[in-house]
Amino acid sequence: MLLFNLVTFTIWVALFAAQVSATLFNDRLPLWASRRIGRNKWRPEYRLYSMFLPAMISPIGLGIFGAGLQYHLHYMVLALGTFMVNFSALLCVPVCINYVVECFVGHPVEVSVVMNVYRLALGLSIPFFFEQWVEAVGVGWVFGMAAFFSLFAMILMFVLS
Description:
Layout: H1 2-25, H2 28-36, H3 52-70, H4 75-103, H5 108-137, H6 139-160
Helix pairs in contact: 1-4, 3-4, 3-6, 4-5, 5-6
C-alpha cells in the first residue's frame, strides 16, 4: 500500500512540476526560436524545441525505473524514475498535439481526436504483451528497451526538426 501511495504522490508532484515548467517554457522557447533562428517567421516545428529536455529525461527515467526493479533498489529510486517518466510525458504530449494541430490548421478537432485515439490505443495495448515481454527478457531489459526506443525517437525528432 505504501508503494501505491508513493507512486500516486510522485505522479502528482510530476504533474505540478510539469505544469510549472510548461507555463514557463512551452511558449517562450518556440517564440525565442522563431526570433533567433527563423528571423521572426513562425514555423510549427519551433514548437518541438520545447520537447528537447523532456525527451532527454524520459529515457533516463525509464532506465532508472528498470534498474530499480531489476536490482531491487530502494523505493525512492523507483519514485525518481516514475517522476522523470511522468514529468517528461506530461510535457511532451501537449506539445505533440499542438504541433500536429498547427500543421493541419483546417482540422484541429479531427487531428486532436486522432492523436488521442492513438495515444489511448497504444497505452491500452501494453498490458496485453507486457508480461510475456518481461518473461522473455527480464524486467530490467523491458524498461531498458523502452528507454532505447524513446532515445531513438528523440534522435529522430532532433534530425527532423
